[in-house]
Write a structure and sequence with these properties.
With 484 residues, the protein is α/β, with parallel strands linked by helices. It has 4 domains: 4-124, Methylthiotransferase, N-terminal domain (Rossmann fold, 3-Layer(aba) Sandwich), CATH 3.40.50; 147-369, pyruvate-formate lyase- activating enzyme (Alpha-Beta Horseshoe); 386-442, OB fold (Dihydrolipoamide Acetyltransferase, E2P) (Beta Barrel), CATH 2.40.50; 448-484. Helix content is 39%, strand content 21%. It is built from 14 helices and 21 strands. The protein has helices spanning 13-28, 52-71, 81-86, 108-118, 165-169, 177-189, 219-229, 247-255, 272-277, 284-297, 316-329, 346-350, 357-380, 448-483; strands at 4-9, 32-33, 42-47, 75-80, 98-100, 122-124, 147-151, 153-154, 173-174, 194-198, 206-208, 216-218, 234-238, 262-264, 302-309, 333-338, 386-394, 401-405, 411-415, 424-432, 437-441. The chain has a 6-stranded parallel sheet, with helices on both faces. It has a 5-stranded mixed beta barrel with strand order 17-18-19-21-20. It has a 3-stranded parallel sheet with strand order 7-10-13. The mean pLDDT is 94. The chain binds 5'-deoxyadenosine and iron/sulfur cluster (SF4). 5'-deoxyadenosine (5AD) binds at residues 50-51, 162-163, 266, 268, 306, 308, 337, 339-340, 342.
C-alpha cells in the first residue's frame, strides 16, 4: 500500500504510544509518513473523550480536514476513544471515512485499502479482552530520540464514576513482561536514555503466564526487571492508583537508582464524601497514609497529582478540603480540571451535574492558584542544589540554551555549552519560576564508586570481546574440520 499517512494525536501519553503502534502497522503494510497535511493520502486523528473540550477540539480539526477533502482525494480516519464512543454515528460527519477503536488498529491497512478501492465508509470498534499489541514494535517517528513510552497494559477495570476510559478502552489486560523488557532493551540499543512505562493503572499490572498459570508478574517485579535489564536507562512510570499502589513498588523505586523518584498519584478530591461518590475506593485518610509511606521510604520523592473541581454535589466545604489536602501534601505539580459530564458514565446516570459552571471555574482557579504557589515553593527548594539532568533538546527561546528534566521530573533550562540531546549533565540550580528551574552545567568530580563502576564495565567489555573472539575462532576450526 503505497500511501502517505499524516497522523495527529490528542489526549494522554497512551494515545501517543497508540499512534506509534498504528504507525508500525501501517509501515509494515507499505505506508510512509508525512508531517505535511497537504501531502497526505490518508489523514488520521487519534482522539480523546475524557472531557468534552477534548472532543470539541477534534471536531474543529475535522472541519479543517473536510476542507482539504474538497480540494483533492484524501481518506480521513478517526482513531481512539472518540471513535470507540461514537462508532458509526461519527461517520455522519462528512469529513470522516472510517472510525477505528483502540483495540482494532490491526485492521487499519484492510480498512484503508477497502475504502480506497471500493469507496464507502467503515467502522471497526470491537473491544478485546486480549489485545496488547505485544508483538508490534512501535514506530517512533515523532520522538525526540531520548525518551520513549512503553505501553505495559491496556484498558481499565476501575469504573471511577466520572470517567469514560473504561468504556472506550475496555477491560484491563497486562502485556507479556518479556516483550516489555525486550522493547526497553531495544530502545537502549537505539540510544534512548529514558523510558516511561504506561498504563491507566500500573499498580494493577498482573501478568499470568498462559503456559503455566502459577507464574505471575506484578508491577513491582516488572519495574525491577526493566531496571535490571537497562541499568543505564532512566525508568519512569504512570499512572499510579492510590488504592492499589503497594509498598513493594516504593521499595523497588528506593532500591534502583535508575528508577526516577517521582510518583504521579491522582487524588481527584480531598473530600472523603466525594471520593466515595467518584468510586475511587479510598478515603482522604487512606490517601494521606500512602503519602506518609512514600515520604518514609523515599523522603526525596516528587509527588504530583490530578484534581477535578466541581464534581456532582461538591460543596464549598468539599472544595476547601481539596485545598487543605493540597497544602498538607505540598504537591510538586498537578493537572487540574473542571468536571465535565461524560455520557453513559456512572456519574452521568446517577448524579446531577449540579455545580454551576461559574462556580466550577472559580474553584478550579483557586486550585490552580494554590498549586502555582506550591510548585514555586517546590522549585525554590532546588536552588543551590545540583541535579543530573537528561538533555532533551534546545530551548524554544534560545538556541544557545538546552532543556531537560531532573530525576524528579522538574523542567530545567541551562546554557548549552557542549551538551547534546541524550547527554546526562550535572546542573547547579541558580533561580526558578513555578514551572522552570534555571541553572548552569557544572563538572562533578567522579566518586570512587563511579570510577569503580567504569573499571568493572571496561573489564567486562574486555572479557566479552575475548569470549566473542574465542567463539569465532572455535567456529572457524569446526568448519575447517567439517570440510576435511
Ligand atoms: N471531567 C474532568 N476531568 C476528568 N478526568 C477524567 N475524567 C474526567 C471528567 N469527566 C481527569 C482525572 C484523571 C485525568 C486523566 O483526567 O483527573 O485523572
Ligand atoms: Fe478513569 Fe479511574 Fe480508570 Fe483512571 S483509574 S482511567 S480515572 S476509571
Amino acid at each position: 500500500m503505497d500511501l502517505k499517512v499524516y497522523i495527529e494525536t490528542y489526549g494522554c501519553q497512551m494515545n501517543v504510544a497508540d499512534s506509534q503502534v498504528a504507525s508500525a502497522i501501517l509501515k509494515a503494510a507499505g505506508c510512509s509518513f508525512t508531517d505535511d497535511l497537504k501531502k497526505a493520502d490518508v489523514i488520521l486523528v487519534n482522539t480523546c473523550s475524557v472531557r468534552d473540550n477534548a472532543e470539541k477540539r477534534v471536531l474543529g480539526r475535522l472541519d479543517v480536514f473536510r476542507l482539504e477533502k474538497k480540494n483533492r482525494k484524501v481518506i480521513v480516519g478517526v482513531l481512539g476513544c472518540m471513535a470507540q464512543r461514537l462508532k458509526e454515528s461519527l461517520l455522519e460527519n462528512p469529513a470522516v471515512d472510517f472510525t477505528i477503536g483502540p483495540d482494532s488498529y490491526r485492521s487499519l491497512p484492510a480498512v484503508i485499502s477497502f475504502i480506497r478501492d471500493k469507496g464507502g465508509k467503515m467502522t471497526e470498534t470491537n473491544l478485546s479482552s486480549l489485545e496488547t499489541y505485544a508483538d508490534i514494535e512501535p514506530v517512533r517517528t515523532d520522538s525526540n530520540g531520548v525518551s520513549a513510552f512503553i505501553s505495559i497494559m491496556r484498558g481499565c477495570n476501575n469504573l471511577c464514576s466520572y470517567c469514560i476510559v473504561p468504556f472506550t478502552r475496555g477491560r484491563e489486560r497486562s502485556r507479556d513482561p518479556k516483550s516489555i523488557v525486550a522493547e526497553a532493551e531495544q530502545l537502549a540499543k537505539e540510544g534512548y536514555k529514558e523510558v516511561t512505562l504506561l498504563g491507566q493503572n500500573v499498580d494493577s499490572y498482573n501478568w499470568t503466564d498462559p503456559e503455566n498459570t502459577t507464574r505471575k508478574v506484578n508491577f513491582s517485579q516488572l519495574l525491577e526487571l526493566v531496571a535490571i535489564a537497562c541499568p543505564k536507562m532512566r525508568i519512569r512510570f504512570q499512572t499510579s492508583h492510590p488504592k492499589d499502589i503497594r509498598k513493594g513498588v516504593l521499595y523497588t523505586m528506593a532500591m534502583y537508582p535508575n528508577i526516577c523518584p517521582h510518583i504521579h498519584l491522582p487524588v481527584q478530591s480531598g473530600s472523603t464524601r466525594l471520593l466515595q461518590k467518584m468510586n475511587r475506593k479510598y478515603t482522604r485518610e487512606d490517601y494521606l497514609q500512602k503519602i506518609t509511606d512514600i515520604r518514609r521510604i523515599m523522603p526525596d520523592c516528587a509527588i504530583t497529582t490530578d484534581i477535578i473541581a466541581g464534581f456532582c454535589s461538591e460543596t464549598e466545604e468539599d472544595h476547601q478540603q481539596t485545598l487543605s489536602l493540597m497544602r498538607e501534601v505540598q504537591y510538586d505539580g498537578a493537572f487540574m480540571f473542571q468536571y465535565s459530564q461524560r455520557p453513559n458514565t456512572l456519574a452521568a446516570k446517577r448524579y446531577p451535574d449540579d455545580v454551576p459552571e461559574e462556580e466550577k471555574t472559580r474553584r478550579l482557579n483557586e486550585i490552580i492558584a494554590l498549586q502555582n504557589e506550591l510548585s514555586l515553593k517546590s522549585n525554590q527548594k532546588c536552588i543551590g542544589q545540583t541535579y543530573q539532568v537528561l538533555v532533551e533538546g534546545p530551548s524554544k527561546r534560545s538556541e544557545s540554551q538546552m532543556t531537560g528534566r531532573t530525576p524528579h521530573n522538574r523542567f530545567c533550562v541551562f546554557d548549552a555549552k557542549d551538551a547534546k540531546p541524550g547527554d546526562l549533565v550535572w546542573v547547579k540550580i541558580l533561580t526558578c519560576t513555578q514551572a522552570t528551574l534555571m541553572g548552569e552545567i557544572v563538572e562533578i568530580p567522579k566518586t570512587l564508586i563511579e570510577k569503580a563502576e567504569e573499571t568493572i564495565e571496561e573489564g567486562l567489555n574486555e572479557i566479552k570481546e575475548k569470549i566473542r573472539k574465542t567463539i569465532v575462532r572455535t567456529k572457524k576450526t569446526n568448519d575447517k574440520s567439517k570440510k576435511k
